[in-house]
């Protein structure tokens, strides 16, 4: 059995599973193994491991020797060393290379007996190896084959670290023997596991000594530094220094102080550091980092305030490297014109005289798709002429096809036109879209029955556009008609995250201390909150995206409504009852909609 300086304990086995080669544990940001990535290198416990094998790919066996040394702060804490019986003959070239013979391995324990002690030995430590993917691959495969759970520790690869720290002028290659000679290690590598592990310990200490000049002080930074980052990321990583570990907004600024990119995070410092690691592979972010000269942080009370501030900053400055949430002023509306025979019109803004409208839409194309849905469902005229009640205008082809009641030729009275065409639009946008939904479903069913599936799919997309817009607008209007709403959500560290919302706009935010009633904090927020007067439309004083972020926060199960000046309600027969139908229209085929007609 292996000689171990730490007390071994039994590691509970799990069901055996087939080993699948995955991302190297430890280089995966989700890996942890209980080690805090902010731990200073001098306080980190490392287990330096080396394996000897029979060669070949990791398949759960093939390990002939394990050598591991546990160190912290330059002090050796323990050693594990054992031969392992692989259960198969050793190739002659392996015996020549390592000096390990078949006779030496016959009395050695198999890997399934060694794994419990080894897994206990590496618990709560950072695993270190030279060419770590090879050693870790064999160990993970052995755990998978013999039913032991791999602890997924953080892993530091000394070969990868040497590629970042040492230049070609210093060492011609990054082989262990070359690095051992360069750092003058006390033990020279001999292709035996324990000797190679001890040599790797000295190489690790030599590399750590060089990391100080690169401003790498923690184990997390060392692991990230060893990964493949660009020269720009390495050169600019000082921009992440001194930022707060708090929720808020960060702004990358150019030399002329122009905002290049705006983002948000629950931990500004951690998020900004991630831009300078190998995990960041977006080409546009590499271009942005090359132009950035400083990072500005805006601390916020909680994540909701950070999200709202991010939206407002992006809207105000339109940073070139932000793709979303820019240009909210480009939203468009679909409104019913104010005339005897009204029609649908796509407009950039609403006036106070507009009473029947739908939106906002993110693009003109989205508004026109919804308009086409209404044209399929109700006989709204599509011509752009301003019709007179006295003068007759020649009818277009749509009248001849029966798609328009020809108000231009006065074939329909204004009252009848309003009842058949205009009123269903008004009702659909503010209350019940049943008439429009039934008409579109009937059209889809007719087309499908005639095997005109492509045309049915077009109508289905129009139905989805109508429902998406009506559900969204009614949901927004329900909140924005409330003059003031105060809400609270439990904070992660105790206390309450508080938000004061006025007409759908975040007017104030704060956090009440743990153990203190939140009402005094709400009163203080109200006293300093932004004044938000009422306005016209479903989003009178904020962007639709901001109000939707607030709605998502308010609708979480843990959020509590504290005070409201008005009722928060939606029509019982409103568009929200068609959400399941909307999901089917967006994701399913036309045949799934035929059963939805009431």
From TrEMBL:
UniProt KW keywords: Exonuclease, Hydrolase, Nuclease
Chain ranges of the GIY-YIG domain: 245-323
Gene Ontology MF: a single term: DNA-directed DNA polymerase activity
Protein name: DNA polymerase-3 subunit epsilon
GO BP: DNA replication; nucleotide-excision repair
Keyword Nuclease: yes
Organism annotation: Micromonospora coxensis
A cellular-component GO term for this protein: excinuclease repair complex
Keyword Nuclease: yes
Highest rank taxon of the organism: Bacteria
